[in-house]
Amino acid sequence: MLTSITDGLLCCLLGKTPNAVGPLDTVDSADGFTFLEVKPGRILRIRHDVPNRPQFPQFPSEEPPAARRGAVRCRRRITLYRNGQLLIENLGSDAPNPEPNELETPDPSGIPAKDGAAAPPGKRRKRKPKKVVTVDCEKRITSCKGAHGDVVLFFIHGVGGSLDIWKEQLEFFSKLGYEVVAPDLAGHGCSSAPPVAAAYTFYALAEDMRAVFKRYAKKRNILVGHSYGVSFCTFLAHEYPELVHKVIMINGGGPTALEPSLCSIFNLPPCVLHCLSPCLAWSFLKAGFARQGAKEKQLLREGNAFNVSSFVLRATMSGQYWPEGDELYHAELAVPVLLVHGMHDKFVPIEEDQRMAEILLIAFLKVIDEGSHMVMLECPDTVNTLLHEFVLWEPD
């Protein structure tokens, strides 16, 4: 604690950014890690495991499916009105595609009509929609087994985390024969940390994830995100609907547009945040885990979680601006989604994930009673089972 305060005071006096993070020289590709330069000077550490599959007929890239097996017709009309109201109509496969109806709302009592007479009771006025979006596509949802060579699982962590929080999931799916990819966000883990705040905005980080996805994506890609990482999964699924096969959202919150809070502790200067880092770490442990014992502290250390510089933490939290990611944006997704929520999560209320399940076209919500925000560390076996069942899920 005393060291943290001293470093913070030196930061204020000298005007330097504390805890500059960069790639570790001790980590090399031989340990399963690679470094990808997404932009000049912007380098991300990536865990990329490729299983050794014998090139025999019993390991085809994809099993020959039955006729139209797993094919789902996705038809919905989404109407957005000027007051923010969202009307979602799920249309049947054989239903016509009529024009959207105007929204009828009752006139307030006592307001005179145009001719001066009082408006008759029960009369309604119609409002034209602001925007109408029609989703009409056919998705082929198939089981993704470890023996399929065209399947890749991407794992994206949230603010303050690293790819190490996915240790149990990466080992689990790698042993089953899956190809897995897990990057460190810029400034997190062993990725490079640019010294400018603009490097940590949502759009800057999203472009990093786009570069990683384009580098390793195959025919069927499954995105797994935690907390802030869920937003990048949604972004990729929206940008590449034909390549993203399924999405898994772990404690990601509701389908709301991102906007940084003006009254947040993360708006304090980096040197002040550096002084408060022990308190922030304790608060994260208190809110992120259902229990706060030696085991949970060890999990945080092994997962390299909440171990970023105060400058990166402040810039990442302040850069969470994504106005496009509203309910309409999420309602347009036609990809199957599994929502995993830790019941004791103090960062994300369960009502937010419930709202997400209502907005998404194909969604399943699973609640883990013993888990909190860091549920993949607390209950790895339960999380791995849920994820694997969803990966293998195929509609009749």
Automatic annotation (TrEMBL):
Residues 122-131 have a biased composition (Basic residues). The keyword Hydrolase applies. Pfam families: Abhydrolase_1. GO terms for cellular component: mitochondrion. Keywords: Hydrolase. The keyword Hydrolase applies. Residues 152-254 form the AB hydrolase-1 domain. GO terms for molecular function: carboxylic ester hydrolase activity; lysophosphatidic acid acyltransferase activity. InterPro entries: AB_hydrolase_1, AB_hydrolase_fold, Epox_hydrolase-like. Residues 112-121 have a biased composition (Low complexity). Gene3D superfamilies: alpha/beta hydrolase. Residues 89-131 are annotated as: Disordered. One of its GO terms (biological process) is lipid homeostasis. Belongs to the AB hydrolase superfamily. This is Protein ABHD8. It comes from Tichodroma muraria. The gene is Abhd8.
